Every structure is written in C-alpha cells, then in structure tokens.
C-alpha cells in the first residue's frame, strides 16, 4: 500500500527516512512529503498549497493509500479525508488531532518576518521531548524550517461529511490511548467524536517517534495499513 507521510511543523520529508526504510522492508510504498514552505524554499506558501501537495500524492497513488499526519499535520491528513473520502483506505494521526472547521491550522507560536520559526525546546519540556537526547534536539532544531505565516494561520475548511466514514487510527506517543478516548468522549475532539471507525495504537515515545522510534512506528503504521 502507498503510505503518504506528512511531518508536522518545521519538518521536511527527510524526517521519515528511518520509518520509510522499515515500511519498504514490510512491503509498503512510503511517500514522504516535503510540503510547500517546509523545505522547498517557498516562503510564501499557503495552507491551500500544502493541502494541494497532499492531494497530489493521494491522486498519484495506484490504489487507495493511507495518509499519515504527525502533530499539526494531522489536520492535513484529515483535510485529505475531507477532499478525497472515497480514495483513502485510512488516516493515521500521530501525536495530534484534526483541527475543526473554521479554526486556524497551527497558530501556536510567535510569527516573525512572515514565518513561524521553531520556538526552542522550552514549550516541549516534559513527555514531548523526554526521549530526545541533546544531540537529537540539536539536530532537529538545526534542521527546522520556519513555517510560512499563511500556512500556520491559514483557516481549515471542512465540508464533506463522508470524511467521517474514513477509518482512523490514533497513534498515541506522549499520551495514552485511554487519554485520547477521554478527550474524544468529553467532546474535546469533535471531528473524531463523529468519525465512525476510530482505533488506537500506543507507542512508547515522545512527540517525535519518527526520530526516536522509527522502526517501531513503521510497524505500527504497517499494522494499521494491513488492518483494512
């Protein structure tokens, strides 16, 4: 199966190298994306440009792919379900949740000179970064690509209720499946509360398992893909 891999804020497609190699060994075709404005040099990219890049990868797949979103990019994976509900086999959400309709995509940190740079490690102290050693933190921060303002502050638009028919697996790194279920049941994740097929997968890692547990994450994703 084609497995489209979308990294979260500040990440380009290279962050998936370890995951991709294991997925290939398990018989899948990984498609790591470098999104417009996050590694291709397009500093004026918009959220619509990133959505278009994801849809192009979906449309290029020979069959029905699984789309994987990490962190903020869970919203991009869910937008793919909204735009191509009949084309997707499944959506996998790693360490994040879908942004509801009408909300900004990722207006989380300070924007300077038209971009949202990586804010340093202070906001990620605790479980998020507990499994990243100093070398890994330095490497990730050094490679971080500032996110264009028109991406971070772009407004998510969802319109096709058939997205709720697309199966979802919530991959839980720095939180547990039990916590994720509680958030959904409490109404804190309205999009997943309405989804008809939601499963959960646990992985013992921080917020960036593609860096700290790539082989394990690949096996989780392969199991999700093969569960269709």
TrEMBL record:
Ranges where the AB hydrolase-1 domain occurs: 3-219
Matching SUPFAM superfamilies: alpha/beta-Hydrolases (SSF53474)
Superkingdom in the source lineage: Bacteria
Record keywords, A-Z: Hydrolase
InterPro entries named in the record: AB_hydrolase_1 (IPR000073), AB_hydrolase_fold (IPR029058)
UniProt keyword ATP-binding present: no
UniProt keyword annotation of Hydrolase present: yes
Gene3D superfamilies per record: alpha/beta hydrolase
One term of GO molecular function: hydrolase activity
Pfam families named among the record's database cross-references: Abhydrolase_6 (PF12697)
Name of the protein described by the UniProt record: Alpha/beta hydrolase
Origin species: Streptomyces anthocyanicus
């Amino acid at each position: 199966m084609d497995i489209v891999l979308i990294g979260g804020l500040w990440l380009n497609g290279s962050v998936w190298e370890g995951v991709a190699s294991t997925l290939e060994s398990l018989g899948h075709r990984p498609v790591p994306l470098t999104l417009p404005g996050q590694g291709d040099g397009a500093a004026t990219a918009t959220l619509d440009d990133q959505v278009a890049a994801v849809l192009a990868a979906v449309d290029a797949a020979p069959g029905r792919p699984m789309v994987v979103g990490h962190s903020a990019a869970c919203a991009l994976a869910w937008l793919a379900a909204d735009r191509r509900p009949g084309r997707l086999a499944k959506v996998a959400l790693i360490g994040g949740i879908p942004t509801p309709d009408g909300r900004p995509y990722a207006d989380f940190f300070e924007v300077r000179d038209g971009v949202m740079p990586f804010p340093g490690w202070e906001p990620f102290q605790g479980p998020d970064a507990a499994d990243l050693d100093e070398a890994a933190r330095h490497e990730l921060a050094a490679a971080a690509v500032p996110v264009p303002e028109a991406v971070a502050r772009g407004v998510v638009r969802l319109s096709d209720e058939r997205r709720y028919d697309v199966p979802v697996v919530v991959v839980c790194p720095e939180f547990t499946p039990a916590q994720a279920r509680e958030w959904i049941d409490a109404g804190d994740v309205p999009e997943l509360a309405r989804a008809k097929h939601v499963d959960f997968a646990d992985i013992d890692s921080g917020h960036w398992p593609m860096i700290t547990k790539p082989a394990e994450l690949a096996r989780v994703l392969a199991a999700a893909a093969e569960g269709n």
